[in-house]
Structure formats: structure tokens, C-alpha cells
Amino acid sequence: MAGAAAGVSLATIAAREGVSREEAEEMMDGLVEEGVVTKETRNGETVYVATGPAGAKAETQPKTEPAPAAAAGDMKFCRNCGAKIPKESKFCESCGTNLGA
Q1: Cα 41 to Cα 56: distance, rounded to the nearest angstrom
Q2: Quick one: how far is CA 63 from the chain centroid?
Q3: From CA 97, how far away is CA 25, in angstroms rounded?
Q4: What whole-number distance in Å separates Cα of residue 74 and Cα of residue 35?
Q5: For the structural domain made of 8-86, what CATH number should be given?
Q6: Backbone CA torsion sign across 33, 35, 37, 40
Q7: In this predicted structure, which of 17-21, 43-47, 60-64, 81-85 has the lowest mean pLDDT?
């Protein structure tokens, strides 16, 4: 894939998760330590880019019907690809990453 990898800004993560920027940064820094995302600064803004599961092969999600759309407060983001998914999901509907581990 050519070009710069897409990333999610700290402000976007905080807004989507309904937490303060400090809480979002703490959460994301944990994922940086796990090697799941990298932390970059682009145009003066902190951005997180998915690197894939740390030290493990991604498990694939069995094919099932997509879950019905949930309210914004019932959503979370995949730590691997950043896709918006229901909070109760154990696997990412976009990339299949096991979110229960």
C-alpha cells in the first residue's frame, strides 16, 4: 500500500469514547506499549496508527450476519484497524482481530 498510513487523532478517540483527552491518551499509550499502535505527531496533532496485533497472529472472526447499528455510546474502536464496532463485540467486524484477548 503506497502513501502514509491512516491514523486516528487523540481528539477523535476522546470524542468517540466519551472520555477526556488525558484518559484517551492513557488508554492509547497502553496500546503503544503493547505494540498494537504507534504514536505520531502530524501537523502538531497526536495521531495513533494501527500496527497489528503485538506478538500474535490475528484470529479471524467467523462469518456471521453484521450486528445491527448501535447508538454512538454503545460503540468502541478496533485496536488493530480503528474500525467503529459495538462495545460487546469480541472480534472486529472489519479486520477480524480478536478483541477479547
Answers
A1: 27
A2: 21
A3: 22
A4: 26
A5: 1.10.10
A6: positive
A7: 60-64
